[in-house]
Every structure is written in structure tokens, then in C-alpha cells.
Design goal:
Blueprint lengths: L12 H9 L2 H11 L5 H8 L3 H14 L2 E7 L4 E7 L1 H4 L2 H14 L9 E5 L24 E5 L7 E2 L8 H8 L1
Antiparallel strand pairs: 1-2, 3-4, 4-5
Amino acid sequence: MALRSDWSERDCSMARGVDVLGDPWILLVLREVFFGNGRFDAMKLRLEVSDSVLTRRLADLVESGLLTKRAYNDGGRTRSEYVLTPMGEDALPVLNAVTIWSEKHLPAPSEQAHMYVIHSVCGQRTGSADTCTGCGERLTAATTKWHSQTRTDAPVELATAVVPSAEATKAAAV
């Protein structure tokens, strides 16, 4: 999923990672899915993004293996929602790092415009992307909450990866 150039074959690990995660829309789409917001219309509304931009980024994330589609019934028709794969869940420290860095270095436009990374096991806000600075435990999607004050009054548990069943894997290959 190249931004302007294809960096997927570069010798530099950072360049290959930026090839996948370097688009701001990609990070914001992943944020929505971690928040449990994996349905197209809900993401579009929250992100204030065009159909074409969101469609392209979702396709890129599925193609790269960070998201997968899961069917759900929308009261009469079957639709797809996007869920994290284990590879997508492994991107959590990147999103945490951007959030923590932003909170530390960039001014918020309002008192509500803050988002914090919380270790759900000890309940402490952390200043590290992958380890709780309160208790030292490793942060995972299952043990991390985000508190976006523009969304909710309380921290939100993050979505975790969905491991596809053998039947779903066979169906997707057909």
C-alpha cells in the first residue's frame, strides 16, 4: 500500500513499515476499529471522510492483512464489518505512541480534545506505547483502554483481533 512510492522492498524496516502505516487515514481507520467501530457508515461519520477515501483505505488494510471482513445481518441484508487481525492488533503500540507523543508535545484545541492510554489491569495512565509506566506490565489490546474525552466520560476497552475459523478462511479463498 504505497503512499507515493512503493517502499515495500526497501532495505530499511522503517521504510517498509511506513509503506503500510504511513498514511494518516490508515492510522485513523485503525483507531476506529480499535474503538470497536468497524462498520463503514459509522466510520465514515466519525472520520468525516469521503466514501472513496475510506473504501480505498479499508481495501488497503485488508490487502495488507491488518483487517479482515466479517459478515453481519443488518435487518434484512448481509453486510461486512471490519475487524482486526493479529497483525492489525500488533499495530497498537504505533497508535499508542502517536497518541502519547501528541498529548506530550501538541496543544489541544479544547479541554475535551485529549486521548489517554490506560492500562486496564492497574488503571494507570501510561506514558509508554508498549509497557505500563505505572506497573511495568506489557500493554496489549486486551489490557489497554483509551480514554478519548470527546467520545466518552470513561475509558473504552479496545477491540482485539479476530482469528478466522477454518471455515471462514476457506470461504474467503473461494
